[in-house]
Structure formats: structure tokens, C-alpha cells
Amino acid sequence: MGTYAVTGSASGMGAQVAERLRGEGHRVIGVDRADADVVADLSTPGGRQLAVDEVLSRCDGVLDGAVLAAGLGPKRGAERTIVEVNVLGVTDLLTGWRPALAAADKAKVVVFGSNSTTSTPLVPRRAVRQLLRGDTEGAARVIRRRRQLAPPVAYAASKLAVSQWCRRHAVAAEWAGEGIRVNLLAPGPVLTPLLRSQLSSSTGKQVRSFPVPAREYGTPEQIADWVAVMLSPAADFMVGSVITVDGGTEALLRPGDW
Ligand code: NAI
């Protein structure tokens, strides 16, 4: 049985993944703003450092895997917080946990991206580059220039940046070369508290009009099943891949991109 760190363990897909891993007999160190083994606010540098330190001390220096599911959806006026949590809440934690992942035998990392990376128009590439440099303030400033579109653009920019960071690092000697497998899961709309709050907000109509060929939303259980595969030996030969599970939106919008 292994030891796994799971961020966003108090709700939605992170909670489902944590429950599943615990049900299989693994040890889970959950990280979230409340109701978690490690209570930490990933929108602040201090909170991220606390999450790094606490998990390292609780896992005795060895992590068999990590699932980075903590995240914030689009929200007006929260552009800076969204990018802090969705980008640095992944990259700072993984950087800090890397030695413990390298100490395990073929550790697996699953990071939650999103199909918004390929379905959101007008995401400023400059903001993505700034996020990759860790400049969340500069990126938020550029994103706010999109005015009405700033919330979805902040979200998509954060997921683009975190996906690019993961793919670049996944193949590096310090990661793939140390036996660590970093991969991304890119869900479409999955019925969790995050999606429910979007559906009941002023942008609910827009969210509902998002085309999903499967004509239904995904469930946290389905996504946890995919995470389980990505944490298993089936992923030993999987490095820097993005697994899209979105009811067909990506195929509908970009049929010619393969
Ligand atoms: P959720 O809202 O149910 O769970 C997210 C968790 O992240 C919550 O427990 C929340 O407390 C935690 N979190 C947020 N801000 C935090 C902070 N500052 N510090 C610590 N923890 C914090 O969301 P859901 O839907 O389960 O999302 C999981 C991941 O999947 C997120 O990264 C989200 O962006 C991504 N995603 C979700 C989709 C959906 O339709 N639900 C679609 C595509 C991607």
C-alpha cells in the first residue's frame, strides 16, 4: 500500500479520489482550506509552504503519488486568486514534494488541467508566459484587460500554464529520469460543487450552452476511475500526457487537430 498526497481533498473530484484511495487501503494525506489532514490556503506563499512541509513530514520522506485537484473556477474579481491556486498551488507543491516522489519506486503524479485550455478563445499568451515565470500579479493585470471575459480567461490561462509547466517538467531528468510519472487529466464539465456553483451563478446560462455531445455531465466517480488508472503501473510508460475526459467537447470543437 502506498502514501498519496491529494489536494482539494475536501470536495468534488479530489474528495472522490481520496475516498477511493483510502478504500483501497492506501494512506492519503489530504490538503485543503478546511476539513483536511493538512489545512492550508494554497492562494498564499505561506499556505503553499505549509502544505509542502506538512506533507513531507507526514509521509516520512516517501510519496508514492500525488493528485493535484485543488482549484478555483471562473469568478469575477478573483483573477489573481484563481491563478495563484490553479498554477502555483500545483507547481510550488510539486517542486517541494519532488524529492519525496523521487524516493518512491515509480511515483505517479496526476494534475487536474481542464478542457478549457482548448475551448476558451482569446487567452493572452503573454499572461500564460507570465504565469510560467510565477508572475501572477502581471498575468492578472493582462487578463483583466479582457473585461467581461476576464473570469473564464483567467481560468483557461491558469490551466494552460499549469499544463505547460507539467509537460515541460514531466520529461526532465529530475522527473521522468527519477522514475516520477507526471500526467494531466483534462475534464470537461463534471457535476461537483464547483460546476453547481457555476450553473447557479449569473453565468449559468453560458455554462449550460457549452456544447457537450454526450448530453450529460461527468461524475466525480468516473473521473476518480481515470485517476486510479493514472496512478497504477499502467502509467509506467505514460509521461506528460493529457487525458481528456469531456463528453466530446474537445473533439467537437477541434476535429482536425489530430
Ligand atoms: P471543487 O470546488 O468541488 O473542489 C475543489 C477543492 O479545491 C475544494 O475542496 C476547495 O476547498 C479546494 N481549494 C480551492 N481553493 C483552495 C485554496 N486556496 N487552498 C486550498 N484548497 C483550495 O472542484 P472540482 O470540480 O472537484 O475541481 C477539481 C479540479 O478539477 C479543479 O482543479 C478544477 O479546476 C478542475 N476541473 C473541474 C471541472 C468541473 O467541471 N468540475 C472541469 C475541469 C476541470
Automatic annotation (TrEMBL):
The keyword Oxidoreductase applies. Keywords: Oxidoreductase. The keyword Oxidoreductase applies. Coiled coil: none annotated. Gene3D superfamilies: NAD(P)-binding Rossmann-like Domain. Belongs to the short-chain dehydrogenases/reductases (SDR) family. It comes from Gordonia caeni. It comes from the Bacteria. PANTHER family: BENZIL REDUCTASE, CHAIN DEHYDROGENASE, PUTATIVE (AFU_ORTHOLOGUE AFUA_4G08710)-RELATED. This is SDR family oxidoreductase. It holds the Pfam family adh_short_C2.
